[in-house]
Amino acid sequence: MLTREGGVGAGATAGRGEPPWVARGARSAPDRMDFTGVAALSPDSDADVASMNALYKRRRDLVCDALRKIGVDVKPPRSTIYVWAPVPEGFASSAAYCEHVLEQAGVVLSPGAIYGPAGEGWFRISLTTADDRLLEAVQRLGALGG
Predict the structure, then answer these.
(1) CB < 8 Å & 24+ apart, contacts of 106-110
(2) Which residues of the chain have pLDDT under 50?
(3) Mind listing the domains of the chain with CATH numbers?
(4) What does the pLDDT read at residue 146?
(5) What is the pLDDT of residue 6?
(6) DSSP letter at 92?
(7) Which residues contact 10 (CB under 8 A, 6 or more apart)?
């Protein structure tokens, strides 16, 4: 992928002023990911990127504040579309907690253990859902009482 500075990124070798697939060392024609990467790093997309960053920052803050109000000790992530929070005491695993939440509150959470051993003891909330649905999900978690 071509970086704004004309350097090398993942996906393709990029040259200075040449399309990534023509640059020295490139071995294949471009695919959609090459074009997507170039478009995403274009100065023309800066407003879109800023808008998405603002959207996810707002949702992150909304979810973290709502989780704190129901007693969950959560640290806002710096740059991701997910919030990780600790599984409440009394559950044998992150999967057991997420299954409990699904059955009792109708809220889908990702058990941290599915992302590796370091994820056990945590659950993950995706910020790709509309604000009102995120708030409703956290309110349902709070109604479970733990």
Answers:
(1) 106/140, 107/137, 107/140, 107/141
(2) 1-16, 20-21, 24
(3) 1-41 (no CATH), 51-144 (3.90.1150.10)
(4) 52
(5) 45
(6) S
(7) 1
* Calpha distance 17→130 (Å, rounded): 40
- Helices 131-144 and 94-105 pack at an angle, to 10 degrees, of 100
Give how far the C-alpha of residue 75 lies from the chain's centroid of Cα atoms, to the nearest Å: 15
Q: Please, how many CA atoms are within 13 Å of residue 94, restricted to the half-sphere of its CB?
A: 21
* Residue whose token pair is 């051993």: 117
Residues 6+ apart with CB under 8 A from 99: none
**pLDDT tens digits along 70-94:** 999 999 998 889 999 999 999 999 9
Contact 101, 107 (CB under 8 A): yes
Tell me the residue type at 108.
V
